[in-house]
Amino acid sequence: MITFAIGLSIVLLFVILFLLFRIGTLASIFRGSSQRAVGTTRTSNRVNSVLFLLFLIVGGAAFAWSFADSWDTMNLPLASVHGEWTDDLFWTTMIVIGVVFVITQILLFYYSYKYQHQDEKRAYYYPHNNKLEIVWTMIPAVVMALLVFGGWKTWTKITSAAPEDAVVIEVMGKQFNWMVRYPGADGQLGVAKHTLIDATNEFGIDFSDPAAMDDFMPMEIHVPKGQPVLFKIRSRDVIHSVFLPHFRVKMDAVPGMPTKFWFVPSKTTDEMRSETGNPDFKYELACTEICGRGHFAMRFILVVDEPEDYQAWLAKQPIFAEQNPEVVAKFSSSFSQQAVAENKTGETAAEVKSEL
Amino acid sequence: MSSTDISIHPDVHHAHDEHDHHHDQNFLEKYIFSQDHKVIAKQFLFAGIFWAFIGGFLSVIFRLQLGWPEATFTFLEPILGGWIQNGKLDPEFYLALVTMHGTIMVFFVLTAGLSGTFANFLIPLQIGARDMASGFMNMLSFWIFFLSSVIMFWSLFLETGPAGGGWTVYPPLSALPQAIKGSASGMTMWLISMALFIVSQLLAGVNYITTIINLRTKGMSMTKLPLTVWALFFTAILGLLSFPVLFSAALLLIFDRSFGTSFYLSDIYIAGEALTNTGGSPILFQHLFWFLGHPEVYIVILPAFGLVSEVIATNSRKPIFGYRAMIGSMIGIAILSFVVWAHHMFVTGMNPFLGSVFMFLTLIIAVPSAVKVFNWIATLWRGNIRFSTGMLFAIGFVSLFISGGLTGIILGNSALDIQLHDTYFVVAHFHLVMGAAAFFGMFCGVYHWFPKMFGRMLDEKLGAVHFWMTFIAVYLVFMPMHYIGIAGFPRRYYNWTGFETFNIFTDMNTFISLAAIIGFGAQFLFLFNFIYSIFKGRRATQNPWHSNTLEWTTPVLPGHGNWPGEIPTVYRWPYDYSKPGAPEDFIPQNVPFSATQSSNLPNEKDLE
Q1: At residue B3, does pLDDT exceed 90?
Q2: N or C: which end of chain B has fewer CB within 10 A?
Q3: Contact A203, A197 (CB under 8 A)
Q4: Long-range residue pairs from B70-73, CB within 8 A, at least 24 positions apart, any chain
Q5: What's the rounded Cα separation, in Å, for the pair A302 and A297?
Q6: Within the 309-348 window of chain A, which residues sit less than 8 Å (CB to CB) from chain B?
Q7: Helix, strand and coil in chain A, % to nearest 5
């Protein structure tokens, strides 16, 4: 019954709208305004030009208000060193384009209002002015050159080779969660191959590689504050993307092509908790490359510790090989030597390629 | 059937020469398998409008999910069937929705619907030709597009759903059916449909270029062409050079999917087994895809540039400011569009040095784009503006192009792209600059050339209401998206409530969804206006906008061959509006200088 009532009222609404439309058409014929060239009637010009001006003023005010109102939420708290550079560059660029935005929109709508049709007036025949064209080609060109220079310098610094002493962590994306691996005491990640993956050995680690024996895989990423951290990123099925919004870090995880990103965390989780006033604050890692059904749910937690807490945490982590001796037992040593040799060369080649 | 074809065909060619014979065509040849460019243009327009409503409807469904993530949508069950489980949208179906929304809007509406309609309709009419260089190829182009549309539409109804890997269909996700349901038959149909689509585009592009180069009427030199034709010319060239690359990308993907090759696949362990593919590179696909993908956004926006330039000049009653600068900037944009593709790939693990190069090249594009905007604004300056609906949309276009284009300067900067890549900032950017802006260009064209297409006028009042509702809705939808994008909210998320960082924007998303639904609703005003006016609209006069270009010298409803008598000769450029000394404020292109002594400039005194 209610559906019927709703349907009926919608139909009635359409009938009323249609009648209004017809009355409007007939009235315009009666008034004779349909005899004039389109767009030259007084009402149409008045209404539309005033609306453009109103749109400029009301729209501009609404934009300014909503921008100011969302300011705090859109500026995510920052927790990395290079994030400061990109945030500065971002807001500098925003100011530049903001100025252009305001000027051009004002001119566009103001001219639309000011130069609305008037019967006695005639437009000014002004086909070109080469000096003007050159001026407004050169100004954007110079501004762009400056922005490119700023961007290039920042980009080069961010993508430069990671420092030698960086904490190395492997981050692997899979459908639909992240997994991380620490190299353990020797600082070397053991060789891994996708053909060795099974339900327990999810990384496909080759345990005949001695470097693999002390690797461990925690359920959270822990990193020390103030030290460079190098993520070695890979994927074992489709493309994923590592995104740490608070650290301004993003890099795709690509199957068959290891990638990396290094950064220096500048605030511990505890510091961020007191800064945001949120006692439950956690740094989150999200996936930003469409990867299937669970794309929206690939959440992983990252904790920034003070260096001494980090060391304490490291010491507590259980070693995978020790906990899963049956996995390690499957590997014979002869098979390994070869795999190690193969993979080592592959890895260095990739390393060289992606360094500036 | 074939025998009728044989007997009728000579008649068709005959009609080309003697125009009193065109009524000999039967219904099928006149309206269905027509070789007349005007009919083909209308076919593309109808198909484009159909697809636009489908694409818009899909976006409304996923906006419902995003705006009210906790709600149950049992009321959608009659339409969506099994895709709704216990009132919840299936997450894979959500991905299929965004994928199909993108594919449909970019390719089927804003490529085929926009340049298909206006290149077919305007090129012969504005350059003074009887028809396209090859009417038959033109017809093939539409029907292959139609076939491609049927396949894409069919894929919406597959049990495993249509393609769901994003409109960019990056492998391995799109290559492996075990990765997502949409990569089963849905993806196969997507690839077949797109391959056919490309064939259609190439047939059309060759035809447009040939026609513009070879079939211009007497006196119509390249520098007397309206900017619409210039824009459509560059669009066709871009399409011809870039679509084959997408074709090869699609072909290699078909090979990987069906014939066991490893162009894009390497070291994959999925669904409990390790695949044997090695040595492929998913990044290769991205390079190939964006080698088309980036020119594609200019294929979408260039025709809009042309239409808007024409409408702004006509309705400001002023020559377009800097005609040569406008052509020059389009050449610049067209050339640069081929060397910026990798700015979509700054964080894919591509060599950072390449990132620097592509950042440099990308930011250069801002210069010709800025020149265009300044020229449009200078055209409005001291004009005598008539607010026809076409003009409203043209002004709206410039506004949206500025708003969306400026953020491109941020996204083109690789250092800033790290944070913003694949967030709603990107969504806001490209929806404003190539989505909404190109749509506004299309509306601008439809309102302006409707009288020439159907011999009747669209209702101006309804048009104004349509414009204002759409214009406001577009800004209400996409401006707030910048805010959530700056905060890092990622694209293509079915639901963000699992993340503390992203669950602070519920109200904003509800607001955006409401604005989107209102904006979509406003399009039904247009649909009503469009259908009603075809049959019952006010009858148009021959030149309702007092425009200079050649199409307005044809009869109200031009027949086969466009001009009943001889094709008019062209003497002047198309922008002699409000020339001092002329009695009217416009002088059509076919008026010789000898007839306008009072308004001739010093250098025009001796011209014919």
Answers
A1: no
A2: N
A3: yes
A4: B70/B497
A5: 15
A6: none
A7: 55, 15, 30
Instruction: Kindly give the pairing relationship between strand A300-305 and strand A221-224.
Output: parallel
For residue A229, give the nearest of A301, A182, A167 by alpha carbon. Answer: A167
CA closest to B581 among chain A residues? A125
Q: Do B359 and B403 touch, CB atoms closer than 8 A?
A: no
Kind and range of the H or E run holding A45: helix A42-54
B602 vs A99, more confident: A99
Q: Please name each of the domains of chain A with its CATH number.
A: 167-353 (2.60.40.420)
Interface of B with A in 201-230 (CB under 8 A): none
Mean pLDDT of the region A237-261: 95
**Whether the model pTM is above 0.80:** yes
Provide the 8-state DSSP code for A57: I
Domain-by-domain residue ranges, chain B?
Answer: 34-553
What are the pLDDT digits (tens) for B250-274?
999 999 999 999 999 999 999 989 9
For residue A343, the tally of other CB atoms under 10 A from its CB is 16
Does residue A41 have a pLDDT over 90?
no
Query: Of B491, B494, B447, whose CA–CA distance to B470 is shortest?
Result: B447
Length of chain B: 608
CB of A249 within 8 Å of any CB in chain B? yes
Whether the link from the prior residue into B289 is cis, omega within 30° of 0, is no
State the Rg of chain B over Cα. 25
What value of ipTM does the predicted structure carry?
Answer: 0.92
Q: Which of residues 418-437 of B touch A (CB under 8 A)?
A: 418-419, 421-423
Mean pLDDT of A39-44: 78
Q: Taking each helix axis from N to C terminus, what angle separates B460-486 and B389-411, rounded to the nearest 10 degrees?
A: 10
- Which residues, 6 or more positions from A234, have their beta carbon under 8 angstroms from its beta carbon? A170, A171, A172, A173, A253, A254, A255, A257, A258, A259
CB B349 within 8 A of CB A254: yes
Chain-chain contact of B367 with A86 (C-beta, under 8 angstroms):
no
CA-nearest of B519, B525, B426 to B56 is B519
- In angstroms, the separation between the Cα of residue A278 and the nearest Cα of chain B is 11
Distance separating alpha carbons of residues B330 and B234, to the nearest angstrom = 8
Q: What's the DSSP call for residue A233?
A: E
Q: Cβ of B243: how many Cβ atoms within 10 Å?
A: 22
List A305's β-bridge partners, or say none: A224
pLDDT (mean) for B510-532: 95
Q: Give B-chain residues touching A52 at CB under 8 angstroms.
A: 395
Instruction: At A267, list the tokens.
Output: 């605030």
**Fold held by B34-553:** Cytochrome C Oxidase; Chain A (1.20.210)
